[in-house]
Amino acid sequence: MEQSNTTPREARRRAWPMEKHRVEDWIGKIYTSICVVFLIAVIISIVYFVTSKGVATFAVNGVSLKEFFLGTNWNPQADTPSFGALPFITGSFMVTVLAALIASPLSISAALFMTEIVPSFGKRILQPAIELLSGIPSVVYGFIGLSVIVPFLREHVGGQGIGIGAGALVLSIMILPTITSVAADALASLPRGLREASYALGATRWQTIYRVVLPTVMPALLTGIVLGMARAFGEALAVQMVIGNSPHIPTSLLESASTLTSVITLGMGNTAMGSIQNNALWSMALVLMLMTFVFVLIIRLLERRNRL
Fold first, then answer.
1. pTM value?
2. Counting Cβ atoms within 10 Å, is residue 133 exposed (0-12), middle (13-18) or buried (19+)?
3. Which of 19, 27, 44, 105 has its CA 20 to 30 A from that of 11?
4. Measured between alpha carbons, how far is 105 from 240 in angstroms, rounded to an integer?
5. Which of 249, 221, 237, 41 is nearest to 137 (CA)?
6. What is the 3 state secondary structure string of 157-170?
7. In sequence order, which residues have a C-beta less than 8 Å from that of residue 69 and are 6 or more positions away?
8. pLDDT tens digit string along 21-61?
C-alpha cells in the first residue's frame, strides 16, 4: 500500500489555503477599519448636528450675527427677547486665559523639578500624584472651590467671593495635571547629550535650564498650555458652581459672570427643543466646538514646529 508523504502542516495548508497569520491580519484590518469608519461617522454626525442646530438661530429664527456675537443683553424670555452672547463669550475667554496664566508657571516649574532637580523622586512620587489630580471629577473641584476658595476670597480680598477670580483659580487647579504631564514628558525626552554639552562649556544647572532646555522644549510646553486652555474653555460644572452665573461683562475679578458652558448647562434643560432660546443655546455650543477646533489646529501647528 502506497503511503502518502504529506505532512500534517501541508495537509492543513491544502485544506485551508491561507496561513493563520494572514487570516489574523485580515481580521485585524477589517476590525480596525470598521472601528475607524464608525468613529468618523460619529464625529461627522456630531459636527453636522451641532452645526445645523446652531445655524438655525440665524437662518430660521432671524437673530442677526451682530446681535448674537456683539450684543450684551441676554433676555430670551422678555416680550422682546434679546440674545446677546458677548458676556458669556467674554467670560469663557477671561477665565480660560487667567487659568492658563496661573497654572502655566506652576506646571512648568513642577515639571522642571521632577525632571531636572530630583528626577528619581519626581518620577516615583510627584508625577503619579499630579497625574492622580486629573482623575478627580470636576464636581469635586467645584465643591472645593465653593467651600474653600470662595470663602477665602470673600474674607481676605473682598466682594462675595464668587466671580471670575474664583472660576479662574478652580480652573487653574484643574488644568495643572495636563500642562505638567506634557511638560514633564517633553523635558524627559530631551537627549542627555544636550545637557552634557552645556555643562562641558561651563554652564551651571540653571543656565542650562533657561538657556538650553527651556528654549528647546518651548513648542512642547506651548502645546501643553494650549491643551490646558482647551480643557478650561470647555469645563462647565466646576466653573458654574463658583462664577456666579450673571449675564453681564465683568469689570473686576470679584464680579459675578457667566461662561458659554455654564449658561448652556443651566438653560438646556429648561427650554423646548426647536424654540428660539434652545437654538440660541445650540449656537453657543457651536461656538464652543469651533473654538475646540481652533485649539486643536494650534496644537497641530506647534507639534509640527516641534518636529522641525
1. 0.82
2. middle
3. 27
4. 25
5. 237
6. CCCCCCCHHHHHHH
7. 85, 86, 89
8. 788 888 989 999 999 999 999 999 999 999 999 999 888 88
